Amino acid sequence: MPINVLTFTIQGQPIAKQRSRKGKFGRWYNPQSQQKDKYQLLLKTMLASEFKEIQSDFPIEVNCLFFFSPAKTQATKKFLEIIKNDDYPYTKKPDKDNLEKWVLDCMSKIVFHDDSQVFMGKSEKYYSLNPRTEIEVIY
Question: Among residues 7, 4, 110, which one has the least CA distance to residue 52?
């Protein structure tokens, strides 16, 4: 089976998937902000224009690198010098699995048929002066 690799980068602070919550009158709602919904729609549009869907019987590996900018209180000269190589781990919220879930949901029905095709992958979080999400799809 030939191995194909798709790689792309999403500029901006990485976004995590939020879970649905139960309101005070027993109704469920999605707390995802309108800004995040617009960002997800923009990403889906970008993906649809660049990629055609992978066949539904292919197993897929998805690797993600999430790069976060430091908080203003962390932006000292010493800390900025430490993170300039994009290899200093980011250990704060959002969780790695919620970040990955948001990326897979955006790619579903565009890059692959369903995220159940994804059998393997890794994701990592780092500090960076250039916040972005780098995604690699191997099939």
Answer: 110
Domain count, the chain: 1
Q: Are strands 60-68 and 118-120 parallel, antiparallel or unpaired?
A: parallel
DSSP run (H or E) holding 28: strand 28-29
Query: In residues, how long is the chain?
Result: 139
Checking if the pLDDT of 59 tops 70, the result is yes
**What CATH number did the domain enclosing 97 receive?**
3.30.1330.70
Domain that holds residue 24: 5-138
Q: According to the model, what pLDDT value does residue 97 have?
A: 92
DSSP string covering 99-137, please? Answer: HHHHHHHHHBTTTBS-GGGEEE--EEEEE-SS-EEEEEE
**pLDDT at residue 95 tops 60:** yes
Highest mean pLDDT among 4-13, 55-64, 72-81, 123-132: 123-132
